[in-house]
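Q: Here's a chain of 377 amino acids. Please give me its 3D structure as C-alpha coordinates.
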Amino acid sequence: MALFDVPGWSVKADPVADASPRKRKRSPVEPGNDINLQKLVSKLSHKDKDVTANHNKKDRKLAKDKEKSKKRMSREDIKNSISLPKALKPVRDRSPSTASSSNQQPPAKKAKTKHVSEPSTDLQPRKSSESTSGLTEMQKSMKQSLSGARFRMINERLYKTTSDEAVSMMEQDSSVFEDYHEGFRHQVQSWPTNPVEMYIEALSSSPAGTIIADLGCGDAALARALLPKGLAVLSYDLVSDNSFVIAADICHRIPLPGSEPTGPEKSNGEAQIVDVAVCALSLMGTNWPICIREAWRILRHGGQLKIAEVVSRFVNVKHFIALITAMGFSLTSKDTSNTHFSMFEFKKVPRCGKTEDEWEGLLQKGNLLKPCEYKRR
Protein backbone atom coordinates (compact mmCIF):
# COMPACT_ATOMS: atom_id res chain seq x y z
CA MET A 1 0.00 0.00 0.00
CA ALA A 2 1.24 3.36 -0.87
CA LEU A 3 2.28 5.82 1.88
CA PHE A 4 -0.52 8.30 1.27
CA ASP A 5 -3.03 5.89 -0.06
CA VAL A 6 -6.27 6.96 1.55
CA PRO A 7 -9.57 5.51 0.57
CA GLY A 8 -11.58 7.93 -1.62
CA TRP A 9 -8.51 9.90 -2.66
CA SER A 10 -6.63 9.50 -5.84
CA VAL A 11 -3.47 11.08 -7.17
CA LYS A 12 -2.62 11.23 -10.81
CA ALA A 13 0.37 9.31 -11.72
CA ASP A 14 1.87 12.06 -13.93
CA PRO A 15 5.59 12.19 -13.90
CA VAL A 16 7.07 14.75 -11.41
CA ALA A 17 8.70 17.79 -13.02
CA ASP A 18 12.42 18.39 -12.57
CA ALA A 19 12.77 20.30 -9.25
CA SER A 20 16.29 21.55 -9.90
CA PRO A 21 16.53 25.44 -10.13
CA ARG A 22 16.84 26.91 -13.49
CA LYS A 23 19.98 28.91 -14.25
CA ARG A 24 19.92 32.00 -16.44
CA LYS A 25 21.85 31.37 -19.46
CA ARG A 26 24.28 34.34 -20.07
CA SER A 27 24.78 35.32 -23.56
CA PRO A 28 28.28 35.07 -24.69
CA VAL A 29 30.26 38.37 -24.86
CA GLU A 30 30.08 39.65 -28.28
CA PRO A 31 32.86 41.77 -29.87
CA GLY A 32 30.74 44.99 -29.64
CA ASN A 33 30.22 44.56 -25.91
CA ASP A 34 33.98 44.86 -25.12
CA ILE A 35 33.81 48.69 -25.50
CA ASN A 36 30.98 49.01 -22.98
CA LEU A 37 32.86 46.93 -20.51
CA GLN A 38 35.97 49.04 -20.85
CA LYS A 39 33.90 52.20 -20.27
CA LEU A 40 32.41 50.69 -17.17
CA VAL A 41 35.80 49.71 -15.84
CA SER A 42 37.23 53.17 -16.55
CA LYS A 43 34.27 54.85 -14.78
CA LEU A 44 34.75 52.67 -11.76
CA SER A 45 38.46 53.40 -11.69
CA HIS A 46 37.78 57.20 -11.92
CA LYS A 47 35.31 56.96 -9.08
CA ASP A 48 37.90 55.21 -6.99
CA LYS A 49 40.40 57.95 -7.74
CA ASP A 50 37.89 60.69 -6.84
CA VAL A 51 37.04 58.97 -3.59
CA THR A 52 40.75 58.64 -2.80
CA ALA A 53 41.36 62.34 -3.64
CA ASN A 54 38.43 63.40 -1.44
CA HIS A 55 39.80 61.31 1.39
CA ASN A 56 43.21 62.93 0.94
CA LYS A 57 41.70 66.43 1.02
CA LYS A 58 39.80 65.59 4.18
CA ASP A 59 42.95 64.21 5.75
CA ARG A 60 44.91 67.34 4.86
CA LYS A 61 42.16 69.61 6.23
CA LEU A 62 42.05 67.63 9.46
CA ALA A 63 45.82 67.90 9.72
CA LYS A 64 45.68 71.70 9.24
CA ASP A 65 42.92 72.01 11.83
CA LYS A 66 45.01 70.01 14.27
CA GLU A 67 48.02 72.27 13.69
CA LYS A 68 45.91 75.42 14.20
CA SER A 69 44.46 74.03 17.39
CA LYS A 70 47.96 73.18 18.61
CA LYS A 71 49.15 76.72 17.88
CA ARG A 72 46.10 78.17 19.58
CA MET A 73 46.66 76.02 22.58
CA SER A 74 50.31 77.01 22.72
CA ARG A 75 49.38 80.72 22.62
CA GLU A 76 46.85 80.27 25.40
CA ASP A 77 49.43 78.36 27.40
CA ILE A 78 51.92 81.20 26.94
CA LYS A 79 49.31 83.79 27.91
CA ASN A 80 48.34 81.81 30.97
CA SER A 81 51.95 81.33 31.92
CA ILE A 82 52.51 85.09 31.71
CA SER A 83 49.40 86.03 33.69
CA LEU A 84 49.88 83.44 36.37
CA PRO A 85 52.00 84.53 39.35
CA LYS A 86 55.40 83.00 39.65
CA ALA A 87 55.87 80.38 42.25
CA LEU A 88 57.71 81.43 45.36
CA LYS A 89 61.28 80.31 45.63
CA PRO A 90 62.31 78.16 48.54
CA VAL A 91 63.59 80.10 51.51
CA ARG A 92 67.16 78.90 50.97
CA ASP A 93 67.14 80.20 47.36
CA ARG A 94 65.90 83.69 48.21
CA SER A 95 68.17 86.69 48.54
CA PRO A 96 68.90 87.91 52.08
CA SER A 97 66.91 91.10 51.57
CA THR A 98 63.86 89.17 50.31
CA ALA A 99 64.06 86.63 53.09
CA SER A 100 64.38 89.28 55.76
CA SER A 101 61.50 91.29 54.35
CA SER A 102 59.25 88.24 54.38
CA ASN A 103 59.92 87.75 58.07
CA GLN A 104 59.11 91.32 58.97
CA GLN A 105 55.93 92.13 60.81
CA PRO A 106 53.28 94.12 58.88
CA PRO A 107 53.41 97.85 59.70
CA ALA A 108 51.30 98.84 62.63
CA LYS A 109 48.20 100.90 61.93
CA LYS A 110 48.56 104.60 62.56
CA ALA A 111 46.75 105.85 65.58
CA LYS A 112 43.83 108.10 64.82
CA THR A 113 44.48 111.71 65.68
CA LYS A 114 42.01 114.51 66.13
CA HIS A 115 42.60 117.32 63.69
CA VAL A 116 42.34 120.82 65.01
CA SER A 117 40.48 123.20 62.74
CA GLU A 118 42.92 125.23 60.64
CA PRO A 119 42.55 128.28 58.44
CA SER A 120 41.15 127.82 54.95
CA THR A 121 43.48 125.69 52.83
CA ASP A 122 43.08 127.96 49.84
CA LEU A 123 45.46 130.37 51.57
CA GLN A 124 48.08 127.83 52.58
CA PRO A 125 51.71 128.81 51.88
CA ARG A 126 52.81 128.28 48.34
CA LYS A 127 56.22 128.87 46.85
CA SER A 128 55.57 131.38 44.11
CA SER A 129 59.22 131.27 43.06
CA GLU A 130 58.95 127.67 41.84
CA SER A 131 60.81 127.27 38.60
CA THR A 132 58.78 126.68 35.46
CA SER A 133 61.72 125.13 33.64
CA GLY A 134 60.96 121.66 32.36
CA LEU A 135 57.21 122.32 32.16
CA THR A 136 55.23 121.98 28.95
CA GLU A 137 53.25 124.89 27.57
CA MET A 138 50.03 123.33 28.87
CA GLN A 139 51.54 122.89 32.35
CA LYS A 140 52.77 126.49 32.35
CA SER A 141 49.30 127.67 31.33
CA MET A 142 47.67 125.61 34.09
CA LYS A 143 50.15 126.94 36.65
CA GLN A 144 49.43 130.51 35.54
CA SER A 145 45.68 129.86 35.79
CA LEU A 146 46.09 128.59 39.35
CA SER A 147 48.19 131.64 40.26
CA GLY A 148 45.53 133.90 38.76
CA ALA A 149 42.76 132.17 40.71
CA ARG A 150 44.75 132.52 43.94
CA PHE A 151 45.35 136.23 43.23
CA ARG A 152 41.63 136.88 42.67
CA MET A 153 40.73 135.05 45.88
CA ILE A 154 43.28 137.01 47.96
CA ASN A 155 42.22 140.25 46.27
CA GLU A 156 38.58 139.64 47.19
CA ARG A 157 39.42 138.99 50.84
CA LEU A 158 41.58 142.12 51.10
CA TYR A 159 38.74 144.29 49.80
CA LYS A 160 36.03 142.71 51.94
CA THR A 161 37.83 142.72 55.29
CA THR A 162 39.41 145.36 57.50
CA SER A 163 43.13 146.08 57.39
CA ASP A 164 43.54 144.39 60.80
CA GLU A 165 42.18 141.14 59.38
CA ALA A 166 44.45 141.49 56.33
CA VAL A 167 47.50 141.85 58.59
CA SER A 168 46.45 138.77 60.56
CA MET A 169 45.98 136.78 57.34
CA MET A 170 49.47 137.67 56.14
CA GLU A 171 51.01 136.86 59.48
CA GLN A 172 49.51 133.37 59.30
CA ASP A 173 50.60 132.87 55.69
CA SER A 174 53.75 134.72 54.67
CA SER A 175 53.20 133.92 50.96
CA VAL A 176 49.90 135.84 50.67
CA PHE A 177 51.57 139.24 50.21
CA GLU A 178 54.01 137.95 47.59
CA ASP A 179 51.36 135.97 45.70
CA TYR A 180 49.00 138.94 45.64
CA HIS A 181 51.57 141.32 44.17
CA GLU A 182 52.76 138.70 41.69
CA GLY A 183 49.19 138.38 40.40
CA PHE A 184 48.78 142.15 40.49
CA ARG A 185 51.81 142.58 38.23
CA HIS A 186 50.21 140.20 35.71
CA GLN A 187 47.02 142.27 35.78
CA VAL A 188 48.95 145.50 35.21
CA GLN A 189 50.29 144.12 31.92
CA SER A 190 46.76 144.14 30.45
CA TRP A 191 46.00 147.76 31.47
CA PRO A 192 46.12 150.52 28.85
CA THR A 193 47.75 152.82 31.43
CA ASN A 194 49.23 152.45 34.91
CA PRO A 195 48.45 155.15 37.52
CA VAL A 196 51.82 154.63 39.20
CA GLU A 197 53.64 155.44 35.94
CA MET A 198 51.51 158.57 35.57
CA TYR A 199 52.43 159.65 39.10
CA ILE A 200 56.11 159.00 38.42
CA GLU A 201 55.96 161.26 35.39
CA ALA A 202 54.03 163.98 37.26
CA LEU A 203 56.24 163.98 40.36
CA SER A 204 59.57 163.78 38.54
CA SER A 205 59.53 167.56 38.11
CA SER A 206 59.02 168.22 41.86
CA PRO A 207 61.67 170.32 43.63
CA ALA A 208 64.60 168.41 45.11
CA GLY A 209 64.01 167.41 48.70
CA THR A 210 60.26 166.94 48.24
CA ILE A 211 59.01 164.30 50.67
CA ILE A 212 56.48 161.87 49.23
CA ALA A 213 54.57 159.26 51.26
CA ASP A 214 53.53 156.28 49.12
CA LEU A 215 50.64 154.78 51.08
CA GLY A 216 50.10 151.16 50.03
CA CYS A 217 53.22 151.08 47.87
CA GLY A 218 53.29 147.41 46.82
CA ASP A 219 56.76 146.74 45.40
CA ALA A 220 57.75 150.44 45.84
CA ALA A 221 57.91 151.31 42.13
CA LEU A 222 57.48 154.99 42.96
CA ALA A 223 60.51 155.06 45.26
CA ARG A 224 62.71 153.13 42.82
CA ALA A 225 61.96 155.67 40.09
CA LEU A 226 62.05 158.93 42.10
CA LEU A 227 64.89 158.40 44.59
CA PRO A 228 67.54 158.71 41.86
CA LYS A 229 65.97 162.10 40.97
CA GLY A 230 66.71 163.51 44.42
CA LEU A 231 63.21 163.07 45.86
CA ALA A 232 62.57 161.45 49.24
CA VAL A 233 59.96 158.66 49.03
CA LEU A 234 58.65 156.93 52.15
CA SER A 235 56.99 153.66 51.11
CA TYR A 236 54.47 151.90 53.39
CA ASP A 237 52.62 148.62 53.05
CA LEU A 238 51.31 145.82 55.24
CA VAL A 239 54.44 143.71 54.73
CA SER A 240 58.03 144.74 54.00
CA ASP A 241 59.58 142.38 51.47
CA ASN A 242 62.46 144.67 50.38
CA SER A 243 64.61 147.49 51.74
CA PHE A 244 62.42 150.22 50.18
CA VAL A 245 59.25 149.28 52.11
CA ILE A 246 58.32 150.09 55.69
CA ALA A 247 55.80 147.67 57.22
CA ALA A 248 52.77 149.59 58.49
CA ASP A 249 48.98 149.44 58.46
CA ILE A 250 48.09 152.73 56.75
CA CYS A 251 44.45 152.30 57.81
CA HIS A 252 45.46 152.24 61.45
CA ARG A 253 48.53 154.41 62.07
CA ILE A 254 51.27 155.73 59.78
CA PRO A 255 54.60 155.97 61.66
CA LEU A 256 55.23 159.64 60.85
CA PRO A 257 54.97 162.81 62.94
CA GLY A 258 51.84 164.99 62.81
CA SER A 259 48.81 165.97 64.87
CA GLU A 260 45.14 166.95 64.57
CA PRO A 261 43.28 169.95 66.01
CA THR A 262 41.29 169.26 69.13
CA GLY A 263 39.44 172.53 69.62
CA PRO A 264 36.71 174.35 67.70
CA GLU A 265 39.24 176.58 65.92
CA LYS A 266 40.58 175.63 62.50
CA SER A 267 44.14 174.39 62.43
CA ASN A 268 46.66 172.46 60.28
CA GLY A 269 48.06 170.52 63.21
CA GLU A 270 51.76 170.37 64.02
CA ALA A 271 55.06 168.61 63.18
CA GLN A 272 54.13 167.43 59.69
CA ILE A 273 56.94 166.73 57.20
CA VAL A 274 55.20 165.18 54.15
CA ASP A 275 54.57 167.25 51.00
CA VAL A 276 52.68 164.70 48.89
CA ALA A 277 50.65 161.62 49.89
CA VAL A 278 49.88 159.08 47.16
CA CYS A 279 47.14 156.44 47.32
CA ALA A 280 47.44 154.53 44.05
CA LEU A 281 44.85 151.71 44.11
CA SER A 282 45.55 151.26 47.82
CA LEU A 283 42.22 152.13 49.53
CA MET A 284 41.46 148.45 49.91
CA GLY A 285 40.14 147.49 53.34
CA THR A 286 36.61 148.30 54.44
CA ASN A 287 38.15 150.79 56.92
CA TRP A 288 39.95 152.79 54.17
CA PRO A 289 38.58 156.22 55.38
CA ILE A 290 41.06 156.01 58.28
CA CYS A 291 43.87 156.22 55.70
CA ILE A 292 42.48 159.56 54.49
CA ARG A 293 42.39 160.84 58.08
CA GLU A 294 46.00 159.75 58.57
CA ALA A 295 47.04 161.41 55.30
CA TRP A 296 45.68 164.75 56.61
CA ARG A 297 47.56 164.30 59.89
CA ILE A 298 50.99 163.75 58.26
CA LEU A 299 50.67 166.35 55.43
CA ARG A 300 52.02 169.87 55.71
CA HIS A 301 49.75 172.87 55.16
CA GLY A 302 48.76 172.90 51.50
CA GLY A 303 50.12 169.38 50.98
CA GLN A 304 48.77 167.29 48.11
CA LEU A 305 46.72 164.08 48.31
CA LYS A 306 46.67 162.05 45.09
CA ILE A 307 44.10 159.23 44.77
CA ALA A 308 43.69 156.79 41.89
CA GLU A 309 41.02 154.10 41.99
CA VAL A 310 39.30 151.66 39.62
CA VAL A 311 36.23 153.21 37.97
CA SER A 312 33.97 150.28 38.86
CA ARG A 313 34.56 150.81 42.58
CA PHE A 314 32.76 154.13 42.87
CA VAL A 315 29.17 153.98 44.07
CA ASN A 316 28.78 157.74 43.76
CA VAL A 317 31.71 160.01 42.80
CA LYS A 318 30.11 163.14 44.31
CA HIS A 319 29.57 161.43 47.65
CA PHE A 320 33.17 160.18 47.57
CA ILE A 321 34.50 163.70 46.98
CA ALA A 322 32.21 165.04 49.75
CA LEU A 323 33.64 162.53 52.23
CA ILE A 324 37.26 163.49 51.46
CA THR A 325 36.34 167.16 51.70
CA ALA A 326 34.69 166.66 55.11
CA MET A 327 37.98 165.28 56.44
CA GLY A 328 39.91 168.48 55.66
CA PHE A 329 40.68 168.56 51.91
CA SER A 330 39.56 170.57 48.91
CA LEU A 331 39.36 169.13 45.40
CA THR A 332 41.85 170.67 42.97
CA SER A 333 41.44 168.35 39.92
CA LYS A 334 39.50 165.33 38.75
CA ASP A 335 40.16 163.06 35.77
CA THR A 336 37.47 160.52 34.91
CA SER A 337 38.30 160.29 31.21
CA ASN A 338 40.20 157.02 31.61
CA THR A 339 38.16 153.87 31.00
CA HIS A 340 39.88 152.00 33.85
CA PHE A 341 40.78 154.55 36.54
CA SER A 342 39.49 157.74 38.10
CA MET A 343 42.14 160.12 39.42
CA PHE A 344 41.67 162.90 41.98
CA GLU A 345 43.94 165.56 43.49
CA PHE A 346 43.13 167.24 46.79
CA LYS A 347 44.86 169.92 48.83
CA LYS A 348 45.04 169.92 52.61
CA VAL A 349 43.13 172.80 54.21
CA PRO A 350 42.76 173.80 57.90
CA ARG A 351 39.85 172.27 59.75
CA CYS A 352 38.30 172.18 63.20
CA GLY A 353 38.65 169.39 65.68
CA LYS A 354 35.97 166.67 65.54
CA THR A 355 34.32 164.64 68.26
CA GLU A 356 34.52 160.88 68.36
CA ASP A 357 30.90 160.61 67.23
CA GLU A 358 31.59 162.84 64.23
CA TRP A 359 34.57 160.74 63.27
CA GLU A 360 32.55 157.57 63.74
CA GLY A 361 29.97 158.81 61.27
CA LEU A 362 32.62 159.66 58.65
CA LEU A 363 34.64 156.48 59.05
CA GLN A 364 31.55 154.30 58.58
CA LYS A 365 31.23 155.42 54.94
CA GLY A 366 33.71 152.95 53.57
CA ASN A 367 30.92 151.44 51.46
CA LEU A 368 31.26 154.37 49.04
CA LEU A 369 33.93 152.23 47.37
CA LYS A 370 32.93 148.74 46.26
CA PRO A 371 35.35 145.79 46.27
CA CYS A 372 37.51 145.59 43.16
CA GLU A 373 36.92 142.26 41.38
CA TYR A 374 39.21 141.24 38.56
CA LYS A 375 37.74 139.06 35.83
CA ARG A 376 39.37 135.82 34.79
CA ARG A 377 41.57 136.30 31.70
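Q: Can you summarize the key feature?
A: DSSP finds ten helices and seven strands in the chain.
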